[in-house]
Amino acid sequence: MDVAASLVSLIQFAIEGIQIIQKIATSVKEGPDTVVYVAKHASDLLHILQRLKTSPAIAQSRDTKLLEWMTACNGDVSRMAAKLARAGFKADDNLSIRLWKSVKSAVKEKEWKEFQTKLHEYLNSIKMFLSVEDSEKLFDMSRRMDSGYELMHDRLLSLIAKCDSIETRCARIEASARNPQLQGVIDAVRQDIQGQLQLLASRHETCISQPSCTGNEGETKCKSEVTRDVVEDIATLVDRVKGLIAEAGFLQNSGLPGYSKQWIDSATVLDREVRFAPDISAQFQSRGYVNVRVQPADFQAAEHTTSDLCLPCLPGHKLSTVTKEKQWTLENVLETPKSVEAFFSMESVRPAPSSIRPASVNRMTMSRLQQWSKRVSGSQMLWLNGRYTPKRGDENSLTRVGMNLVELATHSDVPVVSYFCQSGRSATPRTLGSPEEAGFTSTLYAVVVQMLRLLPAQFEADVDLSEERFRRLDGTNASWGDSIRILSDIIPLLLQPAIYCILDGVQWIEHSSTGAHLRLFIDALRQEPMRVLFITSGLSRVLRDTLSKEETLVYEELGVGRQGEDLQRHAEAFWKE
Q1: For 451-474, how does the pLDDT look when each residue is reduced to its tens digit (9 = 90+)?
Q2: Is 288 helix (H, G, I), strand (E, B) or coil?
Q3: Burial of 423 (0-12, 13-18, 19+ CB in 10 A)
Q4: What Å distances lie between residue 497 and 273, 493, 531, CA to CA?
Q5: Comparing C-alpha atoms, which of 530, 537, 535, 272 is closest to residue 416?
Q6: 150 vs 143, 155, 157, 200, 204, CA distance in Å?
Q7: How far apart are CA 19 and CA 177, in angstroms?
Q8: Distances (CA, A) of 21 to 15, 443, 563
């Protein structure tokens, strides 16, 4: 029998025994004070055991110490109940001297004192267990609520970035000029998100300081109400953003004269921007969004106007609110993040060519990799999901695939960003936190720095790439959000038709503390012109929950260890249109 089942049985037996003892002890009116104390302790212990019996913690408990206490408690209670049963107690003995005499004949006064001491010890021990259990439960609940608040806040910021990206792309393809209503929808969505951020911040502050919510239970209630409201609001926002797809679909099918391929592709662009908006729990039914009805007349040429909308800063979150585009040079931008480079190893960015051994894959994997490398077809992301192996670096056959692809891209002058997480799993001297946290920090910083190097020599943008902003990337977990926001700002500025990103060993940086931001990192990479390849030797729950089956090649499909085709021999088949 396991610990949980044993505890349930022992608690039930102890309750039955204590009920007998309590009934007899409370009926003795002429006995010593010791019996009175036994009656009181028995009553208290009975109440606690009845509460413990219904606790969810018991049904899943593996606490061997609690099992020891309950085993000893049940033994002592059973022996005392058996002795009292031999006294021949009857209900009509109440308030009579004869009752104490019959009880005393079975249990000596010294035994009553010893039993009183034991009951007191069991009472204190089990009360301590319940206090610890309640404290841990409340702490965990508070932690999860706070984590949920931060995650929702980051998700809303991610939606803002998506709106910015949609607006940028619409401007490039002149969609806004041809369809003023489309620009109006974008502005409305942005204003809604801005309002939700302000509402989220104000409700959170009100919840923390609200005097009517006293104690942990009140705080939990407040936070749960905020969570529910925010989820419903996000659902509404997602519905409104998805309305853009219908707009773009109309553009594609309208057949207006003078359209270009870029104009037709607007539907695809918008679909990619909003397809990976935050998932909304099925238990919250979103309010409906009435799609904007458009007619061919709405798509006449119109004077293009730029939006000066900006997002005010929220408490504790400093956002870029530049309304006038700044002029930047690549030389100046690359001066700012030099201190960040100390947090990752260049060996993990791009292994030396001399250390790269040949890699072979089966036909299915070769076909999928070639399809992924062609920017006009296939999925934007691909995951090679291999089984766990203790082999590291070039000893790992899947890691060698990533190394060879990076080398092929470099030789073909294809822009590629890479990081081999398992090659640099141990933290650099400056990275902080657990190995997973330090590895995630290094990965984020390495990708950001490589992306910066791909920016144009000169460009104008309303983003903040100042030294002050990069100074926040100080190696702490608190810098993860800043890194992801910087990445989201950089990617839309890249002019290359396609940029390839190869990340190997994602499983090494996945942890309960990094999971939420790892999802946001993947969301940030899922936008044009990025094409991302993930390689793992072991399960990544974040990738499993984020990528679709069509974007995944599992171990059985990879055929690792079998005879295959050499990647280098098929080099000419990669990076082609």
Answers
A1: 999 999 999 888 999 888 999 999
A2: coil
A3: buried
A4: 17, 12, 10
A5: 530
A6: 11, 9, 11, 10, 11
A7: 82
A8: 10, 64, 76
